[in-house]
Write a structure and sequence with these properties.
348 residues; alpha/beta; Nucleotidyltransferase, domain 5; 5-stranded mixed beta sheet; 5 strands
Length: 348
């Protein structure tokens, strides 16, 4: 292609530079830069290389500029009619994604792009192409993921909120010498948990399972102020494992006047042996129970999720001992990171 030289007056270059400074439209900015570079007697190939576009784009922009001037650089799609993916449409789509197709009379329990297009058309009167629906879903930052199974709390909403607020106030008003931790247990299975992973097209990774499953259990306590994780291991998830953790907490905080333990309503936490221990040698430990089936209020649950993500999911260990070594390494690594963050907070 011959060198593209515009005979436009210098005032046009000044106007283009002003437009480039003011515009927030990235596509318009690219078209302006193409024209400005053409004033410097650059070839279309060099312009395309510098801008990061194709020769065809450079040629098309210059043809429109030489034909229509500065107005030819603006997006002509504004004449296509009213914008379909407006705020109203995207807001309704965001509400729809949180619902189920069954709410609208369909048997299918999960959404497809085509079904979203159909329901949105009936709801808004606007019909778009499934490919456009993909862009709409991207705009509202929707994603495909696995739903989280939950069990409804049997308490009333008022009672649940009252209890959670009480625990939050407890943490915010700790007296000197008092410690608060979040407690929970986690199962470590020799048979790996299967989770999402990247794979090449046309292939599927395999995770070898040992066959007969074996388990080990952790009881853990998370200090939300320091981020430290205190854990104990056991062959069984029973009151003995829980008491083992409480005794470790007492040794960990020997000067604590009171150790508040926020935990769920699992039966091992309120057994006769636990209550007897709390009345005698663990009298400075107070158990603060969450409402039933409220794992999201227990901050240690997030740590267990990280444990599964980084250690147990899709693991390839053939025996439980090697798997538990990785679990122990995770706990040590977690505590090192938490200690660094806590020290930075103190220094800030």
């Amino acid at each position: 292609m011959p060198r593209m030289v515009s005979g436009k007056r210098p005032t046009v270059k000044t106007a283009l530079r002003r437009m480039l400074k003011k515009t927030n439209d990235k596509r318009l900015a690219i078209r302006i830069r193409i024209v400005l570079m053409s004033f410097g007697h650059q070839t279309s190939s060099l312009i395309a290389q510098v801008i990061g576009c194709s020769d065809t784009t450079v040629r098309r922009v210059m043809v429109r500029f030489l034909s229509d001037g500065i107005t030819g650089l603006h997006d002509r799609r504004e004449d296509n009619g009213d914008l379909k993916l407006d705020e109203s449409y995207l807001g309704r789509l965001k509400e729809l994604v949180d619902q189920s197709p069954r709410d609208f009379g369909y048997l299918r329990p999960t959404w497809t792009r085509e079904l979203l297009v159909k329901v949105m058309a009936s709801q808004t009167g606007v019909r778009i192409h499934p490919a456009t629906m993909s862009r709409a879903l991207k705009k509202i930052k929707a994603r495909r993921g696995r739903p989280r199974p939950t069990v409804g709390c049997p308490w009333s909403k008022w009672a649940k909120t009252r209890r959670i607020n009480k625990l939050n106030r407890l943490r915010a008003s700790l007296k000197p010498g008092e410690i608060l931790v979040y407690e929970d247990e986690v199962d470590i299975h020799l048979n790996p948990k299967i989770g999402l992973d990247w794979m090449n097209c046309g292939t599927q990774k395999e995770v070898l399972t040992p066959g007969q499953n074996r388990k080990q259990y952790l009881a853990g306590a998370l200090n939300p102020d320091t981020g430290e994780l205190i854990v104990v291991e056991g062959d069984k998830k029973n009151s003995d494992l829980f008491l083992k953790l409480l005794e470790k907490l007492k040794r960990k905080y020997p000067d604590a006047k009171k150790i508040h333990v926020i935990l769920d309503n699992y039966r091992i936490h309120s057994s006769k042996i636990v209550n007897a221990a709390l009345e005698h040698h663990l009298s400075n430990i107070s158990l603060e129970f969450l409402p039933p089936y409220c794992p999201s209020e227990n901050r240690i649950e997030r740590v267990w999720k990280d444990l599964h993500d980084q250690v147990t999911r899709n693991h390839r260990h053939a025996n439980l001992q090697d798997l538990m070594k990785d679990v122990t390494s995770f706990v040590k690594r977690y505590n090192r990171t938490a200690k660094k963050k806590y020290q930075l907070q103190l220094a800030a």
